[in-house]
Amino acid sequence: MKDIKHIKHLFARAGFGMRFEDLRKYKNASINKAVKELFENSDTVDPIAVVTQTVDYMVLAKADADTKKKVFQMEREQEKNLNAAWINKMSTTDAVLCEKMTLFWSNHFSCRDNRAIYVQQLNNIQRANALGNFRTLLIQVSQSPAMLLFLNNQQNHKGHPNENFARELMELFTIGRGNYTEQDIKESARAFTGWGFDKDGTFKMRPFFHDTGVKTFMGKTGNFQGEDIIDILLSKKQTARFISTKLYKYLVNETPDDAHINAMTDVFFNANYEIKPLLEFVFTADWFYDDKNSGNLIKSPIDFIVGLNRQFYVTYQKPDVLLLFQRALGQVLFYPPNVAGWPGGRNWIDSSSLMYRLKIASTVLDQGLINFTGKTDPEDEAYLATVRNQQHVVNTRVQAEADWDEFFNSIPKDMSKVDIAHFLLEPQLNGMVQNTVNEDNDLKMMVIELVSTPEYQLC
Question: What are residue 189's phi and psi, to 5 degrees?
Fold first, then answer.
C-alpha cells in the first residue's frame, strides 16, 4: 500500500489527481512503472484546433464600426470555445502529464492577446514542447505572434529598440531578476530588432529593421542575433536553476529546498535543457514522496475544476458555466493577471474564493444553483456590463451531470468508507472529516461532503 500512496501523490502532482479506476490499474504497480506510463501516455501530442477563422487585421483597421463590432464578437466567441476546449482536454485526456506541464508553461510564458488564433497557436507550441527541449520551446514561444505582440517586439526596430521583450526574457523566462544589468537589456533588445510576423501569423525576420551593429551582452561581444542572446542565457547555470526552482514550487513544495533544487539544476543543465530527464529525476526522487511534500500545495482553480471533472466524470450542458467558475476562483485560462502570471500558492485562496471552492463541488455534483459575483478581469468590459445590469449577481443553474454509476462502479469492492475518504483527500483525516465518515450512512452524500471540505483543496 506504500507504493499506491506514492502513486496517488504522483498523480496529484504530475496530473490532476487519481481516480478510483487508476487505483485499480496501479494497485500492484511500482513507482517506476507509473512514472514510465505517465510519459508514454504523453508521447503523442494532440493539438487544440477549435479556432480556424482568421482575420486580416491590416484590413480590419480600415473597416467600418459595424464590421469591427462583428469581428470583436466573433473573437470573443472563439476565446470562449478555446477555453472550453482546453478544460475539456484536461478533463478527459490520458496525456495528463503533457497537459499539466502545458499549464505550467502557459503561466511561465504568461501572455494575453485577444486574437484567439494566435492564443491557440501559442498554447499548441507550449503543448508540443511541454516535455521536450526548453531552448526549442523558448525560441518558438518568443517567435509566436501572441508573444511578439504582447511584449511589443513587433515594434522593436533598429534605431528605436523596444526593451519590453528583452527585459521579460531575462527576468521571467530565463535567468531571473538580479542576474543581469540594464545595459544587458539594452544590448539584448538590439539583437531582437526585426523579429516579427506576417499577416498569416508566420514568424518573419525583417532585415531592414534589424540592428546589425556589434553588441556586448553579459561580457560577450559580437554581431548578435536573438538566438545568440538566448544561447548565452542558457549557457548560464543560473537559468537552469531559475527554471528548476519554479518547477520545484509547482510540483513539490512552495518552500524551496536548496539541496533538491541544486540536484535538479545539475540534471537540467547537464541534459542540455531537456525537460523529460528533469521530470523523471523529480518523480523518482525519494524526497518527492516525503510526508512534508504531500498534501501541502493548494490546488490552482484549474487543478480543482479539472480534478473534480475527472474524478466524477462530469459533463456540462452549459459549458459557459466553466468560465464563471474560473472567474469566481480567480484563474481564467489565457487571461493571466499580468506578464508575471498567477503567483499561485496561498494567493489562490481568500475569503471569497474559498467560499466558492467549497460550494462549487456540491453544486456540480448535486445539480444546484450558485450565485456568481466573481473576480472580474479589468479589461473584460462586456462581462462587467452584464454584472452591473444584473445587480452584481448572476444566477446560474450549473446543469452539470456527474456519472455516479461510473464513479461507484470504479471503487474497489473491499474499500471501506474510511479508505474512500483517505483516497479522496490528500491530508490526514481530521476530527471533523472522521465524524462525516462515521455519521453519514449515505455514501453519495458522504463523498459530496468530503469534496466540499477545505482538505479537498490541497494536493
Answer: -60, -40
DSSP per-residue string spanning 396-434 = EE--EE--HHHHHHHS-TT--HHHHHHHH-SSPP-HHHH
**Please, which residues have CB within 8 angstroms of residue 91's CB and are 6 or more apart in sequence?**
16, 306, 309, 310, 314
> Could you tell me the pTM of the whole model?
0.93
Per-residue DSSP letters for 9-72?
A: HHHHHHSS---HHHHHHHTT--HHHHHHHHHHHTSS------------HHHHTTS-HHHHHHHH
Q: Please tell me what DSSP assigns to residue 224.
A: -
Residue 429 in grid coordinates: 483525516
Cβ burial 164-185 (10 Å sphere, 16+ → b, else e)? bbbbbbbbbbbbbeebbeeebb
CA atoms within 13 A on the CB side of 150: 27
Q: Which of 112-121, 162-171, 367-376 has the lowest mean pLDDT?
A: 367-376
Angle between helices 443-450 and 417-424 (to 10 degrees): 30
C-alpha cell at 246: 519554479
pLDDT in tens, 294-333: 999 999 999 999 999 999 999 998 888 999 999 999 999 9
Find, among 46, 125, 105, 20, the residue nearest to 279 by Cα: 105
DSSP 204: E
d(CA 278, CA 280): 5
Phi, psi of 103 (to 5 degrees): -65, -40
pLDDT of 391 reads 35
DSSP conformation class of 195: E
Question: Nine-digit cell at 85?
Answer: 476546449
pLDDT at 365 over 70: yes
H helix or E strand, kind and range, residue 89:
helix 65-92
- Residue 197, beta-bridge partner list: 203
Between the alpha carbon of residue 185 and those of residues 43, 140, 217, 226, 331, the distances in Å are 37, 20, 8, 12, 31
pLDDT of residue 361: 92
Which set of grid coordinates corresponds to residue 276? Answer: 523529460
Number of Cβ within 10 Å of residue 259's Cβ equals 9
**d(C-alpha 413, C-alpha 372), whole Å:** 39
* Contact indicator for 299, 457 with CB cutoff of 8 Å: yes
Give 359-402 as a 3 state SS string: HHHHHHHHCCEEEECCCCCCCCHHHHHHHHHCCCCEEEECCEEC
Pairing assessment for the beta strands 394-397 and 220-222 based on DSSP bridges: unpaired
Mean pLDDT of the chain: 92
What is the rounded CA–CA span in Å between residue 87 and residue 48? 11
Rg of the chain, C-alpha, whole Å? 23
- What letter represents residue 339's amino acid? V
DSSP 8-state class, residue 262: H
Q: Which of 187, 181, 150 is nearest to 165 (CA)?
A: 150
